[in-house]
Amino acid sequence: MQVRNKKVVWLLISLFCAALLSSGCTNYKKKSMGLEVELKNKQGLLEQQKSQNAELEAQVAQSQQTIEELQRKIEAGQTAGTATGFDGDVKFDPTAGTITVTLPNAILFSPGKATLKNATSKELDHILSVLKAKYASSIVDVVGHTDSDPIKKSQWKDNWELSSQRSLSVVRYLSQHGISNTQLRAVGRGDTQPIASNSSESGKSKNRRVEIVVHLKK
């Protein structure tokens, strides 16, 4: 009887040990599989980062090539407007990597208003066509400026608000006609960046403007 009991006890102990070993093996496999999945995920993220870095490097190289090409054209005698493809008052800054197209407010807006004069604008439509053809991936700032005369009769609180609303009107026009929202930024400068004296009407007229700033550098 005692021998039989001992056999039962040893059998139970053997089964218990086997269960422990089996459980330990299962946990090990689970941990191993988990580590393999984590490793694959990290490898995928690494490859994605490498791809993004390579794409960014290609964009930077392309931007630099565009800047150098514009410099060569201008040094060869072309105007900034002809070299860049834009018409009118155009400035190119190779150091900053920017093209700035200036539009007088009189072309776009009635005095004290922030709504575009017309449903379509040949000036903005030309800018649109050039942006799409040559600068499709560039960030574009639309910067509104005013003269220093305080707001008295219109609905705006001050020149900051007027310039901001005018820049937004132009941004919306560009967006509605095919420029990606991710490219566009609206900026209001009020009367803080005059390009002429506000002591004369001609100077004030020059200061009332919208600038389309195309950023070539990434």
Detailed description of the structure:
This protein is an alpha+beta fold. It folds into two domains: 1-78; 79-215, 60s Ribosomal Protein L30, Chain: A (2-Layer Sandwich), CATH 3.30.1330. The chain is built from six helices and five strands. The protein has helices spanning 2-75, 80-84, 105-108, 122-134, 159-176, 201-207; strands spanning 89-93, 98-104, 139-145, 184-188, 209-215. A five-stranded mixed beta sheet has the order 1-2-5-3-4. The longest helix is centred in the N-terminal third of the chain and has 74 residues, at 2-75. The radius of gyration is 33 Å and the shape is elongated. The N and C termini lie far apart (88 Å).
List the helices and strands and how they pair.
Blueprint: H1 2-75, H2 80-84, E1 89-93, E2 98-104, H3 105-108, H4 122-134, E3 139-145, H5 159-176, E4 184-188, H6 201-207, E5 209-215
Parallel strand pairs: 3-4
Antiparallel strand pairs: 1-2, 2-5, 3-5
